[in-house]
Amino acid sequence: MRLPATTNSRTSWPGCAPFLGCKGSQIKFVDGPQAYSRHYVEPEDGVTQTLHIHLEEYGPGGKSQKHGHVNEAAFYILDGKGYEIHDGVRYDWSAGDVAVVHNNCVHQHFNADPDRPARALVLKTKPMYMFMNMLFQHLVEPRPTEPAPGGQGFEARESEGSYNHAK
Fold first, then answer.
1. What is the chain's Cα-based Rg?
2. Enclosing domain of residue 116
3. Using CA atoms, how far apart are residues 39 and 13, in angstroms rounded to an integer?
4. CA dihedral 80, 86, 92, 94 (to 10 degrees)
5. In this model, does residue 140 exceed pLDDT 60?
6. Which stretches within 59-115 are classed as H helix?
7. What is the pLDDT of residues 118-132, one digit of tens each?
8. Which residues lie closer than 8 Å to 80 by C-beta, 6 or more apart?
9. What is the tens place of the pLDDT at every residue in 87-116?
10. Is residue 80 part of a domain?
11. How many domains is the chain partitioned into structurally?
12. CATH number of the domain that 59 lies in?
């Protein structure tokens, strides 16, 4: 039985869903100008009951919003170098590291390189928390609306020739 395709306005997947064989290259980055997101699987898709998977790209010197949520999140750092602030404690990271945001943690992500972007693949258990009616999220500081110094003109890498690390 073939399930119907879905359309997700946030991820821009007209006519496809991940279990039907969509390509990641069809999903465009959103947000910016310092932190961009490409959501592969998320709760509103109805595809999975346990995972939210997305790619984050932080522009040179960029940072994310400061926020907190009940669910944990694991960030596998694909390239770049940066750091996290979790409940006031700094944790440095670089390509190949895993940064874990624990439950109920107020946190923010930072790219420490003023010249190059950083990328992380993020795995969250958010849908499971939604299913149990335990989801709580709070925005402390919104995403910056202006590029970071040195990051003017930066656009997320929609496609690239090498999927290992940025050159």
1. 16
2. 23-141
3. 10
4. -30
5. yes
6. none
7. 999 999 887 666 666
8. 58, 94, 95, 111, 113, 116, 117, 118, 119, 166
9. 999 999 999 999 999 888 999 999 999 999
10. yes
11. 1
12. 2.60.120.10
Strands (E), the chain: 30-31, 35-41, 52-58, 66-69, 73-79, 81-86, 89-94, 98-101, 105-111, 118-124, 137-141
Q: Which amino acid is at 122?
A: V
In a domain, 59, yes or no: yes
Range ranked top by mean pLDDT from 1-5, 69-73, 85-89, 130-134:
85-89
Q: Three-state SS for 26?
A: helix
Cα-based torsion angle of the residue sequence 131, 9, 66, 58 in order, rounded to the nearest 10 degrees: 120
Q: Is residue 151 part of a domain?
A: no
Maximum mean pLDDT: which of 14-23, 78-87, 141-150? 78-87
What count of residues does the chain have? 167
Instruction: Say if 50 falls within a structural domain.
Output: yes
